[in-house]
Structure formats: C-alpha cells, structure tokens
Amino acid sequence: MKYTIGLTGGIASGKTTVTNIFENFGINIIDADKIAKQVVSPKSDALEEIKKKFGNKIIKDNELNRALLRKIIFKDKSAKMWLESLLHPIILEQVVKDISLSSSPYCILSAPLLFEANFQKLTKRNITVLTTMTSQVNRVIKRDNVDLIQAKAVISNQLSNKMKIRLSDDIITNNSNLKNLKNKVLSLHIQYQQFSRI
After folding, report:
1. Which CATH number is 119's domain given?
2. Domain count of the chain?
3. Inter-residue contact 170 to 126 (CB < 8 Å)
4. Model confidence pLDDT, tens digit, residues 30-69
5. Is 15 marked within a binding site?
6. 114-154 pLDDT, tens per residue?
7. Is 17 known as a binding-site position?
8. 16 is an annotated ligand-binding site residue
9. Annotated binding residue at 12?
C-alpha cells in the first residue's frame, strides 16, 4: 500500500489551502469530499437509495439536495447513521483505488471525517489542521451564508479539536500568513518523503 498521510481538520480550518500546498510540491491528493460528491451523482445507485429513504423532495434539478439532506441529518441521528452506513463503504472503496493509483512518493488522504469514518486505517500518519474558533466561525458565516448560531452549531457538531489532536501525529496551526503555512507544510513534506523511503 502506498505511504498515505491522512489530513483532517474542522470546517473552515484551511484544509484545502494546506492540500493545495502539498499538491504544489507534486503530491497526489485523494479528496474524500470530492469522492463523496461523485458517489451520489445523478443516476448513481447511492442516490437512488437516498431517494427511496427520504423521498423525491431530496432531489433538486436531478441532483441531491444537499442543503435539505444536511438539515435532516443534523436533526436526526438515526438518519445520519443510515446515510453514513450507506456512503462510507462506497467512498472507502474508491479511496483505496485512488491510493493504489497514486504516483507521488506518498499521497495525502484529505477527509473531514477521517477519524469518524475510520479512514485512518489506511494511513501511516495523520495531520490535523487547526485554526482559532473565531476564524472558523467567521469563515463559515462568510462561505456558507449562515448566521452566528448556525455556524457555531455546525462546528460543535464535529469531532472536537481536542480529540483530533489526540488521534493525530502532526498538527498544522493555520493562524498566521500563507508564507508561514507554506514553511510548515514544506517541513512536513521533507519528513514524509524520508518516511516513505523506509
């Protein structure tokens, strides 16, 4: 199995910025979020199962109505568990395939639910990207066009940073400028290249 680094972090912590930097160093990124969108594309088996479960209202313009689905699973834990049991194995299968096709010295598996979905069983090391709660809240409000209460609710619904730190080998704090962030990623990149040769 290709030497794989798991990368996670809370919503709006800067995961995409960090993976972009790794990608600029020539590292293949396997993005679990993108795969999650692909597996529920129009006419997919998974989308049909979701439609059977939640009804036609869950489809908008032939596509999954993500906003409505988020609302449903946010309020109903059993619906969330059902959805995860449907999607996680399909996503995992594609992730494994993409890892096997990676051509860089190591690859990054970027997954917001890295630990919740047990994807860390595929990784040798794990990174958590951290930022301040204020930055997270402000970014969520701006990006998702929600109010302060909604932004805080979304953040509190995720695995805590404390738990992510405990489960991670490396931490990237994203509280400074882009130059500092690039230097942190470069330092890890050099380490990971060495680890992948062992």
Report:
1. 3.40.50.300
2. 1
3. yes
4. 999 999 999 999 989 999 999 999 999 999 999 999 989 9
5. yes
6. 999 999 999 999 999 999 888 888 888 888 888 888 878 88
7. yes
8. yes
9. yes
